[in-house]
Amino acid sequence: MNGAEALMSVAKKAGIEICFANPGTTEMPMVMAMDSAPGIRPVLALHENVCSAAADAYGRLAGKPAMTITHLGPGFANSCANQHNARRAFAPIFNVIGQHSTWHYDADAPLAMDILGLAQTVSHWVRETKSPESVAQDIVDGITHALGQRGRIACLSFPHDHQMAEVEAEPVLGKPEPLEATDGKLVDQAAAMLKNGKKTAILLGGTALKETGLMLAAKLKAAHGCDLVIEGSFSLMECGAGLPDHIRMPYPPEPAQALMDSYEQVIVIGTKLPVSFFGWPGAPSQYLRDRDGVVHVAGQVGDSVTALDALVQGTGAAAATPSVTRLEVPGMPSGMLTPDSLCQTFTALQPENAVIVPTAVTTGRLYGPMSTKLPRHTQISLCGGAIGEGPGLALGAALACPDRPVLNLQADGSGAYLPQAFWSQAREGANVTTVICSNQRYAILQGEMTRAGLNQPGPNSMALTQLDNPPLDWVAIAKGFGVPGEVATTCEELADGMKRSIATPGPYLVEARI
Ligand SMILES: Cc1ncc(C[n+]2csc(CCOP(=O)(O)OP(=O)(O)O)c2C)c(N)n1
Ligand SMILES: [Mg+2]
């Protein structure tokens, strides 16, 4: 067995089933090993940022890492924006980066660059195989690390000569690092707060947003009348009828600060203390800083479910009937599409058990609050603020959950970062409905200009934020990558397009013009 075959066989034994790849010459042994040591599904992506986006969603939904294979430093560099998003989402990913043969390092060949230095900026674990003897252990160490806590980014730089060398492959998978244990004193403090009658919010994030955590929180809400606030960007949230109603942490700093200030007490579980997305002049940076009545029971890698359970037991809420929402599907609006009616149409048609990728920036802001009473579904949001991940997330979601419909509510400007994902969606038969919210501009940035006090933007500012000259033809873009689609300008047309898409297997795109 050579090193590349060892990679495939060890990774398969460790539970890895899929590899998002964009290979080159230095990865040829790994490409060939996908046949000589088969068992891992190869998925070609036409840009490395598709690999990382798809691996991000796959990791969040499957709960185990996908592998990626990218070409030297430049190939991996192309994947970095979505590696960053994946790191913020605590997605497990095992990245294998092809490296030159060790005897070729001195030559300083054109594609050579500092792979480890680069990978370190987006990863928790970085290593280069040192010798053929270490290869098998390096592989399991990387996978073990990726599986640690909620999930992490692990990067293995794999020199070409080590891929081809004969290697021994009987390494043992280590024990992944567990979630951080809960501090009983903090639980006691929070329990006392829940019972003291003051106005209280529980700010929830991370693993607390899965069903078990949410249902425990629903008991606390029922027993103590507290509000549940959800972190602004979340890795994975179960949502819809039968789960507790909640308030989303607003994106702009003023309403976010006002929301936090409206509570005498805030208990934080499964996320960090909330911060503002940007440092806007005069606006707050950290919403819960320097105030009383805050207890941080569990952080982003804390064991939030155990913490919530301890709170339920410790406050006598175990017998409470959980406070949950009832199914309420909005009526179908009609007429020309507006951001509001677009989101209403989308929610009216959202099928049960769907995975939703809500990456529609300005238009999609209305979606979150509309979604809590819809049929049960899962939402995965953009966690690192690096826009343009949506189409790749949708690909990874569809491959992790082949039996579930995947819907990507996607803004146009950000969608244009990653249309290559459509090709992989088509090739893999991914069951994705993409609704492009086509406002033909970077609306959020135009809003930023207004916030900055610019009432009449000049032609150059507009040139940097308008997308209408020439307009993006999304149906043609999708068609070019093998995905059928149509344009909708009214709610009725959007509804028709969505129904067509949901009824037909494979990807489909509706360009919803606002
Ligand atoms: C990788 C990256 N590049 C640039 C930005 C800055 N940025 C934030 S929002 C945005 C435009 C979003 O426009 P669009 O996706 O059309 O959303 P809209 O506000 O129009 O709904 C840009 C360029 C970013 N956040 N991430
Ligand atoms: Mg836009």
Low-confidence stretches: none
Global shape: globular
Number of strands: 18
The overall pLDDT, averaged over residues, is 97
Structural class computed from helices and strand pairing = alpha/beta
Distance between the termini: 57 Å
Q: Helicity level, as a percent range?
A: 25-40%
Distinct compounds present: thiamine diphosphate, magnesium ion
Oligomer state equals: single chain
Using the CA coordinates, give the radius of gyration.
24 Å
Q: Per DSSP, what share of the residues sits in E-state strands of 2 or more residues? A: 15-25%
What is the tally of helical segments? 21
Summarize the main sheet.
7 strands, mixed
Read across the widest sheet, the strand sequence of neighbours is: 9-14-13-15-16-18-17
Explain the layout of strands and helices.
Layout: H1 3-13, E1 18-21, H2 28-36, E2 41-44, H3 48-62, E3 66-71, H4 72-78, H5 80-88, E4 93-99, H6 115-120, E5 125-128, H7 135-146, E6 153-159, H8 160-164, H9 184-195, E7 200-204, H10 211-224, E8 227-230, E9 237-239, E10 247-248, H11 253-261, E11 265-269, E12 294-298, H12 304-314, H13 339-349, E13 355-359, H14 367-370, E14 377-379, H15 390-400, E15 406-411, H16 412-415, H17 420-427, E16 432-438, H18 443-451, H19 459-463, H20 474-480, E17 485-488, H21 491-503, E18 508-513
Parallel strand pairs: 1-2, 1-3, 3-4, 4-6, 5-6, 7-8, 7-11, 8-10, 11-12, 13-14, 13-15, 15-16, 16-18, 17-18
Antiparallel strand pairs: 9-14
Residues 81, 361-363, 385-388, 411-414, 439, 441-445 line the site of thiamine diphosphate.
